[in-house]
Design a protein that fits this description.
Number of helices: 10
Strand order of the largest sheet: 9-14-13-12-10-11
Strand content: 25-35%
Helix content: 25-40%
Distance between the termini: 49 Å
Number of domains: 3
Order of helices and strands: HEHHEEEEHEEHEHEEEEEEHEEHEEHEH
Number of strands: 19
Structural class: alpha+beta
Largest sheet: 6 strands, antiparallel
Length: 322
């Protein structure tokens, strides 16, 4: 299954950019032609996940996508590992193979794919003993070297805020209005829209609108932002951080995010680029887990989404407290 993810990234790298609707249609055609059964919405989730991996930039509001420039970047507290993100053409793969043949440490890792979803590309990690090796390898691959892009992204995370003022549902759209239910994590038919909350409906041209109501005012938003605005309004938490157990590794750990609260695109990319691999889905706990996230970075991410991060103290500190 992972070969389809690599094939799709190769195709996107050669095409370069386009409309999201056309991209989704291509994904649907390729999966059908290969008898790959997918759940509804798999095409959009593939774009979302590959964007988080740093390969594609997606402008959901304007319906456009573009392949990201190729970048070789180190991982935080990684003990000599860097990840290659962005455009991956035939020439890129050939250059990586030449590095491998010359003795460089190259690791291809298959990413976890939820049942019914389309496999995303494999992650490509390069080992190094000295930063000068990364500059040399970036030049040979034909990409840019960026020291720890994850840390830079965490520093750039915007603070969550209400979007621009917007109009309420028109009379002709009231039968399509749905309100987000915080407990079920789903949109449900709204009997009215007089209460504060997160709403969505179809406009007159059948485009889906997502808006937040606060008092008598309506504000445009995206689904991910709207969910965290709801958490802030209700005073609930959707994320936790737990330090690693290894000696000297307490500064980094696992960030767990509730299923019903997907991270906005930039936040997701910052968290994913701490490892360069897909987050792990824990069905029993109903959380998505991002590994190797530094505590200060997790706190910055949570604060930018108006969340108070729940932190589990290291085992040594808990033992000392007793």
């Amino acid at each position: 299954m992972t070969e389809i993810g690599n094939l799709l990234l190769r195709w996107a790298s050669e095409v370069g950019e386009g409309k999201i609707t056309d991209f989704k249609a291509t994904l649907a055609w390729i999966t059908r032609s290969r008898n790959i059964r997918v759940r509804e919405g798999a095409e959009g989730r593939w774009l979302r996940d590959v964007s988080a991996l740093g390969h594609i930039d997606v402008d959901w509001r304007n319906g456009l996508w573009a392949v990201s420039p190729p970048v070789l970047t180190t991982l935080p507290y990684s003990d000599g590992l860097a990840v290659l993100t962005g455009r991956r053409t035939k020439a890129t793969s050939r250059a990586v193979e030449e590095l491998y043949d010359s003795g460089d440490r190259i690791h291809w890792l298959s990413n976890e794919t939820a049942e019914g979803d389309i496999a995303v590309p494999d992650t490509l990690l390069l080992g190094y003993e000295h930063p000068d090796m990364l500059l040399r390898n970036a030049e040979r691959i034909g990409c840019t070297f960026v020291p720890c892009a994850a840390r830079r992204l965490f520093a750039l995370l915007p603070d969550l805020a209400l979007g621009s003022p917007a109009a309420p549902p028109a009379l002709g759209n009231v039968h399509t209005v749905e309100r987000y239910n915080h407990e079920t994590r789903q949109y449900e038919p709204a009997q009215s829209y007089g209460e504060e909350g997160l709403y969505r409906w179809r406009s007159t041209d059948w485009a889906r609108l997502i808006q937040v109501r606060r008092g008598q005012e309506w504000h445009s938003t995206e689904h991910e932002n709207g969910v965290y605005l709801e958490h802030a309004r209700l005073g609930t938490s959707a994320m936790r951080w737990r330090p690693e157990s290894g000696k000297g590794r307490e500064r980094t750990g696992r960030l767990s995010v509730d299923w019903g609260a997907p991270l906005p695109p930039l936040h997701a990319r910052a968290a994913v680029l701490c490892t360069g691999i897909q987050p792990r889905i824990h069905k029993l706990a109903e959380v998505v887990r991002y590994d190797n996230v530094p505590r200060h970075a997790a706190e910055k991410l949570a604060a930018s989404l108006l969340q108070e991060l729940e932190v589990e103290e290291p085992a040594a500190l808990r033992k000392a407290a007793r």
